[in-house]
Every structure is written in C-alpha cells, then in structure tokens.
C-alpha cells in the first residue's frame, strides 16, 4: 500500500497536524510506503544553504510524525523549492536496492531550479519503480512549455551502470504542481460548475486531458477521475477561491499520474498477454484533495495505491541477530550470514538503532564488519560491539546491516531489548539523592536573597 502526497506549500511552514493528509486514522491496513512531493518549499538562499547542511523543516516534521509509527526516511532529494521524500516500513528495507536520486532544472533556461523535476528511483522486490515530482511553468498560455519541460525531465539519465531510463522502469509515478489550467470556459461557468459539483463539465477543457489525446508520450499515463474541486487558487486559510484583484480561474494544477511499462508494451498486442504473465499491477484506491489545509493557495492532493508485486527477490541478502542477552554492562556479539552472491565490502557496517529511528544515519553506534570481526565460518560470522558504545539506559533496538556497494540497508534484525547499565543508573540515583539532601540549604539562601 502506497500513499502519495503532492502539495504546493507556498513557502509556508508545516501545519500543526497531518493525520488526515497521511490517513493515519484510516481503518484499513497501514501504508507500506509514503511518497511526499512538495513544491515551493521555502528556498531563500539562507534557508537553502542551511537545509543542504541539515534536514529542512518539512523533512524533520514528517520524520517526527512517521518514525514513531515504524517508518524510516529511505531517501530524499531537494532542488530549490522542490522536495521529494520517501518513507518505508522497516520490514521492506532489505528488499529495496539501487536507490538513486536526480534533479532537472528547467526554470530560467535551466540555470535556476525554481521549476523542473526531482526524481527517486529504486528496485523494490526486484521491480524497478520511479517517482517524479515536478513543478511546471505557470499561466494559461504556457501549455506547450509545460509539455516541453516534462519531455526534458523524462529524458534525464541517472548516474550509474545498468540503471534503466525513466520510461524503462516497470512503474513510473508522475505528480506535482503540473500547472495545467481549464481552457476556453469563463470564470463564472467554471465556478458555477464547481459549486454544483458538476466537475465532469470541465474535464474536456482541462489542458492535461486535452494534451493526453494529442501527445503520444502522455497517452500511456493513467490518472484517476477528477472527482474533487480544483485545488488552485484559494485565499489562504479558507476554501474560498481567489478573491484578489487577479481572480485566478480555478484549475486542477495538482495531479498524480502513473504508467505501467508492461501494460504499455502489451497494449498493442492484445490477446497475446495473459494476467498471469504480469508481474506487477497498480490499483488506485483513492484520489482526493484535502480542503482543510489552508497554509497555501493550493490544496494538497493524495493518491492511495495498491501495488501488487510478484517478488523477484524473496530473501534478504544478509540475515543478522544479536547473540544472547544484550546488556549495557558488557561487550556483545552480533551474528550474521550473507547469501553467496552478496557483494560485501570492507566499508560495510552494522548499526545499532532505536526502534523508532528516522533514517540510515540515525544510529546510536556501529561496528565495522571486517575490523570488528571475531569469528568466521562458511555459515556465519560474528562481530563484537564494545559495552562502552552501548546506550547506558538500554531499551528496544534493531540491528541493520549497511552495504557500501549497494548504498542501502540489506539486512535488519527483529527488535530486541538491551538491559540498562545498573551500576551507572544506581550511581546517578545516589548523586541525585545527595543533591536533593542538600536542597534545603540552597532554598534557604535563595529565600534570603
């Protein structure tokens, strides 16, 4: 289950609550992956430079919401105001490989990244999947420019060997502030149609729908029905369309589309392609806007999808677990085994993470698999971790094996308990007691003063 968000946030700070946006209260099964594409994230030069060194406020915000629920930030890519974040449940980490990011500038002849696309691709259970968050040129008259820019973004190539081109991925998701408008109809007819919930009257003059009938490269992209109000342009903190002097005509600027490669290849050979042959299918369960969010002049749009995959990978590359009972009072051992074809490296490491960790660098400590190895046989290897490195307070933790060659976590243990360092805790308690015993004197002198 994949939940995809697109939102032009208009340089605003994160809202107080995103429960409904992420459907955290939904009664069905929880999501396996969240893909969050934002446009117009505050990108004043000072903000942008500090965000390059540290996570930006939006990334921190979504990590704070999702990490306690068992999701980690798998990857992110930022270009000026464009930000793309992907979060996944721990259980899927060993089956996600070859994660790569890319960005394409199209604004101001490609010199300035205020428009363009940011992309993350991966192999998920052996299937190639690509996510593309775009911000295309504005204004009614720029349809051709939008299409030209999108074609340019589609042509970009990831760096690295054997990575398919964008359109060669098994599934490609395209979303963002695509800026397509409603042509021909006047503002009063558009607003009347919206007020009467007769959105279908506007569909045939939606510029993206019109372009899909003419442009071959768009015809393979699928979109759910636009059964929600156009998401642009609103007065801030309201669900009232633009009352400023410009009185912008409402439009479905914020969209989510997808393309399944197998369907495209076999569409022309009808009758030759049976359901059984298809190893991946995409089902749209929900395509809606969220009217309650008013921090920008756009409303966010979400798509909830079912991805059905016949796994081409079913075993993790590395299996690992903590040996015996772990305690912060003594050195501990980690056992792991790798499949024969695993491309290990001297730079591989095993990290100790709190269960609600945020991303791959959010470890409490780590051990190098070669430097800290203490035993090895054909079935498994053992690595030690010093007691000095283990958090004194103990708690619930996970072990993750990070592959330098694959640039990803390739094995994750079950959660396990670490017993606290009782000696240190007792020492701390006795120090607290002593300071408490001296407290009355301090209070007295404080009162005299």
TrEMBL record:
Protein family membership? Belongs to the inositol 1,4,5-trisphosphate 5-phosphatase type II family.
Enumerate the Gene Ontology biological process terms. negative regulation of glycogen biosynthetic process; negative regulation of insulin receptor signaling pathway; negative regulation of phosphatidylinositol 3-kinase/protein kinase B signal transduction; phosphatidylinositol dephosphorylation
Q: Name one GO cellular component term.
A: plasma membrane
SUPFAM superfamilies for this protein? DNase I-like
Which GO MF terms are attached to this record? inositol bisphosphate phosphatase activity; phosphatidylinositol-3,4,5-trisphosphate 5-phosphatase activity; phosphatidylinositol-4,5-bisphosphate 5-phosphatase activity
Q: Which CDD domains match?
A: INPP5c_INPP5J-like
**PANTHER family in the record, alphabetically?**
INOSITOL 5-PHOSPHATASE, INOSITOL POLYPHOSPHATE 5-PHOSPHATASE K
Task: List, alphabetically, the SMART domains matched.
Answer: IPPc
**InterPro entries according to UniProt:** Endo/exonu/phosph_ase_sf (IPR036691), IP5 (IPR046985), IPPc (IPR000300), SKICH (IPR041611)
Q: Which residues form a coiled coil?
A: none
**Sequence ranges assigned to domain Inositol polyphosphate-related phosphatase in this UniProt record:** 1-313
Source organism superkingdom: Eukaryota
Q: What is this protein called?
A: INP5K phosphatase
Q: Entry's Pfam families?
A: Exo_endo_phos2 (PF22669), SKICH (PF17751)
């Amino acid at each position: 289950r994949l939940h995809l968000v697109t939102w032009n946030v208009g340089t605003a700070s994160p809202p107080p609550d995103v429960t409904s946006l992420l459907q955290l209260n939904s009664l069905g099964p929880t999501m396996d992956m969240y893909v969050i594409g934002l446009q117009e994230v505050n990108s004043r030069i000072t903000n942008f430079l500090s965000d390059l060194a540290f996570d930006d406020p939006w990334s921190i915000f979504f990590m704070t919401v999702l990490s306690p629920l068992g999701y980690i930030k798998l990857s992110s890519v930022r270009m000026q105001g464009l930000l793309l974040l992907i979060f996944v449940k721990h259980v899927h980490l060993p089956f996600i490989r070859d994660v790569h990011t890319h960005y394409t500038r199209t604004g101001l002849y490609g010199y300035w990244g205020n428009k363009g696309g940011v992309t993350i691709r991966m192999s998920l259970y052996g299937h190639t999947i690509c996510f593309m968050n775009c911000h295309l040129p504005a204004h009614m008259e720029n349809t051709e420019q939008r299409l030209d820019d999108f074609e340019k973004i589609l042509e970009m190539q990831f760096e690295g060997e054997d990575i398919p081109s964008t359109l060669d991925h098994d599934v490609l998701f395209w979303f963002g502030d695509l800026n397509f408008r409603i042509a021909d109809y006047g503002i009063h007819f558009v607003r009347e149609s919206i007020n009467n919930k007769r959105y279908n009257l506007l569909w045939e003059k939606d510029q993206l729908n019109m372009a899909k009938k003419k442009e071959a490269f768009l015809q393979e992209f699928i979109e759910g029905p636009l059964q929600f109000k156009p998401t642009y342009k609103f007065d801030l903190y309201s669900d009232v369309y633009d009352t400023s002097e410009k009185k912008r005509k409402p439009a479905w600027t914020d969209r989510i589309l997808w393309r399944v490669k197998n369907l495209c290849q076999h569409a022309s050979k009808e009758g030759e392609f049976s359901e059984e042959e298809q190893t991946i299918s995409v089902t749209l369960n929900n395509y809606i806007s969220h009217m309650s969010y008013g921090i920008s002049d756009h409303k966010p749009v979400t798509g909830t999808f079912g991805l059905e995959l016949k796994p081409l990978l079913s075993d993790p590359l590395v299996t690992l677990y903590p040996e015996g009972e772990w305690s912060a009072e003594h050195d501990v051992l980690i056992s792991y085994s790798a499949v024969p074809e695993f491309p290990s490296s001297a730079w591989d490491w095993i990290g100790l993470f709190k269960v609600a960790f945020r991303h791959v660098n959010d470890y409490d400590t780590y051990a190098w698999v070669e430097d800290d190895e203490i035993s090895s046989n054909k079935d498994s290897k053992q690595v030690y971790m010093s007691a000095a490195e283990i958090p004194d307070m103990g708690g619930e933790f996970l072990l993750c094996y990070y592959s330098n060659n694959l640039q990803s976590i390739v094995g994750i243990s079950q959660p396990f308990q670490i017993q606290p360092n009782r000696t240190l805790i007792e020492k701390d308690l006795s120090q607290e007691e002593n300071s408490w015993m001296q407290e009355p004197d301090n209070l007295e002198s404080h009162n005299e003063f």
